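Dear V.,

Thank you for sending over the compound details. I've combined the ligand you provided, fe (ii) ion, with the protein sequence from our construct and run the structure prediction for the complex. I'm sharing the raw inputs here so there's no ambiguity about protonation or stereochemistry in the SMILES, which I know was a concern on your side last time.
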Amino acid sequence: MTTTAQPPATAAAEQDAMSAAFDAAVAADARIEPRDWMPDAYRATLIRQMAQHAHSEIIGMQPEANWISRAPSLRRKAILMAKVQDEAGHGLYLYSAAETLGVSRDELLDKLHTGRQRYSSIFNYPTLTWADVGAVGWLVDGAAITNQVPLCRCSYGPYARAMVRICKEESFHQRQGYELLLALSRGTPAQHAMAQDAVDRWWWPSLMMFGPPDDESSHSAQSMTWKIKRHSNDELRQRFVDICVPQAEVLGLTLPDPELRWNASREAYDYGPIDWTEFQEVLRGNGPCNDQRMEQRRAAHEEGTWVRDAGVAYAAKHGEAAA
Ligand SMILES: [Fe+2]
Ligand SMILES: [Fe+2]
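Below is the predicted structure of the protein with fe (ii) ion bound, written out as structure tokens.
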């Protein structure tokens, strides 16, 4: 019997094989797990997106935590505290999920604190009245859910699994905001006016949460090929508008867009133009609360140094005892 000696696989051939396995897994809707080979650009995209998502969760605690001490009843206070605490938990799941890609939480927080990574621009708007807590829950958490439900099927396993639990909690957030606005809308004329004013201020920034229009979105096409993203920015924005219009009717509140109307041929609501100049300005750091949010975040990090130190000391002691 004769054997034919095979030439050793070259590094390039191995690379091709791993790349083909990755493409096949993505095509088959299988999950990519932390120890699997993945293209560098896929890893970098996920780190950027998951970090931005995690940062948004913890910065997003600020505008609403602002109202915990002024909630109008014990029931409302308990609900709001639970919601703000959930957001801290979402940050934790997402930083942990991002760590599976080989970055540390310290590194990500450092990038946030030095302005090298972003958080969602929506959190640079102020919460001026109690009704804003309702509008944020209904619209901001509602937009977040619309964006995030498809992420439960994202190709990266740890991100997809984190999103399942996050989405369940986000729907509680959306419902509490809706119920709060409904109570105000059915209350006194002053309460109704306060609810309407909050919706007037939060509607357009919520539509901007879906990101720039599809033809201007630089990361979208590649993310869709990798199945990190499943729907385009404009598709998700449309879905959100179509969900909100009937809900606003039940609330007895008006969405601040004179061009909003049902389009029978598209079977969707048409809506007016979005002021992308405002979006760009907020992204550039010129939103109403950008500086305040970052100052508060950096201060919270510094003031929490002793907690992290205590955690490390406890872990070291625990490790020694176990050894
Ligand atoms: Fe959240
Ligand atoms: Fe939320």
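A first observation: The chain has 13 helices and two strands.

Warm regards,
I. M.
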